[in-house]
Amino acid sequence: MAPMQPSAPTIEAWVIMAWGGRRYCITAQPTAELTAAWLLEMETMICSRLSGAS
Prior knowledge:
Blueprint: H1 8-28, H2 32-50
Helix pairs in contact: 1-2
């Protein structure tokens, strides 16, 4: 299945989510393992949404 174009509000939400996570990481300084786990989850959520999964 081909990726679906997300709506503008979805893209904006992703940017805010990623920016907020980046700011959190700078402030809280989580371990490398926690940061990697967060990044993997972000990638999984976005790829799932792009593939059309609910």
